[in-house]
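Notebook, p. 212. Picked up where the previous page left off. The plan for this session was modest: take the two constructs that came back from the sequencing core last week, fold each one, and keep the raw output in the notebook itself so nobody has to go hunting through shared drives later. Recording the first one now, exactly as returned: residue sequence, then the structure token string.
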Amino acid sequence: MTTNAYPLLQKVNAPADLRAMPRGNLKALASELRNYVIDSVSQTGGHLSSNLGTVELTVALHAVFDTPYDRIVWDVGHQTYPHKILTGRRERMSTLRQLDGISGFPLRTESEYDAFGAGHSSTSISAALGMALAAKQKGENRRAIAVIGDGAMTAGMAFEALNNGGVADANLLVILNDNDMSISPPVGALNRYLAQLMSGQFYAKARDMGKSVLKQVPPLLELAKRLEQQAKGMVVPATMFEQFGFNYIGPIDGHDLDSLIPTLENIKGLKGPQFLHVVTKKGQGYKLAEADPVAYHGPGKFDPAVGLVKPAAPAKQTFTQVFGQWLCDMAAQDQRLVGITPAMREGSGMVEFHKRFPGRYHDVGIAEQHAVTFAGGMACEGLKPVVAIYSTFLQRAYDQLIHDVALQNLPVVFALDRAGLVGADGATHAGAYDIAFVRCIPNMSMACPADERETRQLLSTAYAQNHPVCVRYPRGAGVGMTPLESLDGLPFGKGEIRRSSATKKIAILAFGSLLYPALAAGEALDATVVNMRWAKPLDEELLRQVAAEHDAIVTVEEGCVMGGAGSAVGEALAAAGITKPLLHLGLPDQFIEHGDPAKLLALQGLDAAGMEASIRARFMAP
């Protein structure tokens, strides 16, 4: 991208440069910043709609606050591309979400301006409150700002933090970035004036003086509070947040710098917890994204002049599509089935199910804990809940998984999408731990299908059980194994030998989609290859048979080695009194960052060549 197209933006290498600019230049800077985001994402892919919606807010925050001394905590973090561009990473945007490039989310190790790492939602208020109280304890006059979306406000953690923050006597500013509603008539000149007035020192001092006088006459103080709330209620939404102890300001137009900057400047001088409600529009400034913000939420590369081009039908189904089709087919057969998702309808492949079975579809918002317990309640009443959830997000509901579902042995199916490495979204979204954290829970089972066909079959098997079962599958397409049309399952807890060795020296036990590179490695090594299918229960009969016939055993999984399926194999062999040389291949004890999934797997030695090399080095070294 030529710098001639961005004459103002190229002068901003840090927020201090922005603060040194004449205020009259900031609107033009925001326009350049928006176009730069569009140009960048069109070349790399990434999140677009959410970033276009936060351009002016980002400019205003860095113009008013003394970052990085003042802390800005972005919730979720996929809306931080403008923030990254303004904080010294403009030239690195071409590496966004690529191996050794910059992250698509805030990352503390990447920049001092990334005050808190993110990736999951609803954490910003808690983190910013912690920073605000730490500053107070250390005697530092810094501000802590949490920027949170209306979707993230559906999670209980956000309200837990508000409940604490309202009584914590901290200089905390919570900004609600409300992008799920149009800018209504009250969000105009009159409302702008009132927002600035309510955020100003005069209003704050007058209110405090009035309270000190009226405290001497409690009935009048209570009447004054009610009158104030009613007056505000004429021009602003119900001040629920004031009941938490916050001074509520807004809503104001989040794309109007003439409104944002003065309001933020006024708030900067206020003490105690403040709540600013800004209304923004996803995709703002790019008509195609405004018209279809969902399609432009996380696009791949595209031509900004043309927009997204509908791709040709892929040769292979994705695992997500296989799940979506199975869900519809099973629902048509069994009226008890209900589908539940924590705000991941598109990502989890439930769009068609929602259309066909709207009364049996439940999107509970970004509330994973609630989703799991909600499913448990439905199971208690004889329904058959299927919870479609990313592996990484199930971590957030671990207590509910144990106490509300497994402890009561309720028949809930968990369809764990994005199991294993996920590529561009990096460590925050990787499904590395589900085998380890599920298999240690009594009553729980874990299926690991190797391909698209087995995914459909094992979902049916899971659904037929009378206890909780997880079925994990990766992001993207598999090997092109077309699923059968039937809803027949596979035997519960049973694996199969997929390749027999003539030499019987080495047996490779594969869990999940890494079966296919394991088969390739098995060919090169003349090793037996076993498709285990289940991490829990293990097919112990098959395991003992294989152990008796081979000299060494190798386990392969796209999950953490520590406590994973390989550990289960070792434990089972030890319990049976069988001693064999073991090699566990899987994800190491570290967080794997963003990059091309195939390359990331190869770097961990989990492609065919890497498996072969590891096995040769361990068992066939000269």
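Okay, moving on. Second construct, recorded in the same format:
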Amino acid sequence: MAGSADRPLGTWDEGALEFAGLSRVRLDALLQELLARVDEIMDSQERLRALLDAVVGIGTDLDLTSTLDRIVTAACELAGSRYGALGVVGHDGKRLVRFITHGVTEEEIAAIGPYPEGHGILGLLIEYPEPIRLTDLAEHPSSFGFPPNHPPMKSFLGVPIRTRDHAFGNLYLTEKAGGAAFTEDDERTVSALAAAAGVVIDNARLYADTERRRRWHEVTAEITQLMLGEFDPEDALQLIARRAREVSGSAVGALMLVEDNELVIVAVDGPPAFQAHLGRHLPSDLPIIGDALAGDQQIVVEELAELIKELGGVTDAPELESLGRAIIAPLPPGTRSTGGLLVVAAERGALHEVTVGADLVRMFAIQATLALERVQAQQDRSTLAVLEDRDRIARDLHDLVIQRLFATGLQLQGMHRMVRPDVQERIGRAVNDIDTTIRDLRAAIFELHHQPDQSSLRADVQALVADYAEPLGFRPQLTCTGPLDSAVPTAVRPQILAAIRESLSNVVRHAQATEVAVEVAVTAHEVIARVADNGIGMDSTTTNRQSGLRNLRERAEALGGAVQLSANDPHGTVLELRAPLTASAD
């Protein structure tokens, strides 16, 4: 106590004051640190709240295009970035096929030029899908620089977006507010947003695919309903091309059918500029086209415009340069269809709904084949109805009309000797008219039995004789007897026509005839073609012209027949060709 009493009072006060000063400094530091921690917590909470708001915002609807726009906007707001973009990676995983921007006006985009395809820093993020954060873009060795009219950009943050195990695209952010660099917190926040965006994008694509399939079922019912009744094939094929384009989200849809080893575009749906290609013929042996026709699987083309250029395609159609990803689906073989292709193509840079609906495109190709088969069935049914009606008419003509005419002719002939000579002459003319009518009816019956889709010798002879009416100055008399179209061999038909043509040509040039009779008759064993005229006859010059018939004689002999040139009574010339009904092409 004494010692304490002896200590000077000033010494104790100075130590306490010094301790109190040090405690106050440390307390201030602690308070500042505490306030900083509180600010960080508040900032983190604010950032977390903003992130949650952004995640909720990007999933407000399932339209893929608007979803991508909202993702870019949300990323820029979270990281405080002036410019942002979302690049969609193509299915080849090597380049960008679409670029959604934020912070750049339409005028600036037009001045910059085409969107990037994934070179430089953008390509680095495609090749190595890991977050990239740079203070200065220009200092990175992979930097390619900027094109003219591009706004200046320094700081950079790139984050990949994945949907399941697939790299959908990348988020690119530049120019953080205040000229600062992007922080690690920015990277974590944007990466979290990208993870949520991948789920939202996947849901949007699944929803779009579900909607397409629902729409496809509606369209299938529509097309099926059309084909259940009578329909125009052109309208049906046009409807299939239109619905295939709509359901696949494409810009153009086209149907092509094989005709004479060529592809003919029979239906086109899309912008008016593409309608000019309707009816265009394309080679069917082009590399990609030939592969599609030969196989049973559709072929996906990444850039249809580039393929057309490589194949040396249409050069007078600038609208084709706008076509990007396309699907070429072969029409499955039918019982009578000749084959073809269904093509749908999207615009360059468009989202790939066309790829998701690839199986739907093939289903539309099946619909096209069904439509063609249905049309053929309708035509066959109509043809069968016509043929049945013709058979009925032919039977009625043969069993009723001809028999009655024949009986009437017999009755007239029985009365011939019972009447005066002048009446006999009139009866004779009437009988001859009846015989002519019977021959005409028999010819009509044979015509009725002829099927429209088969070649007709009778029709060919009639057309050939009609062609010589003008050069002769009169129409030759034509008589056709027997089943020309069913009994005459195919190898003999050209010789029949050649003999008639050769004879009529000689009559025009040399005979000076006023009447010509052409007769083609089928007997039990042979076919006979005879051309008789009443011209100047077979004089010495006509005999010399027989060398022109040498080829005709040789061909007739090859068929086992013969050609004979003789004089007509009382004057003129007769050319006659005979050929057996058993003649063959050999």
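Notes on construct two before I forget. The chain has four domains: 2-41, 59-209, 226-370, 455-586.
Flagging for discussion at group meeting.
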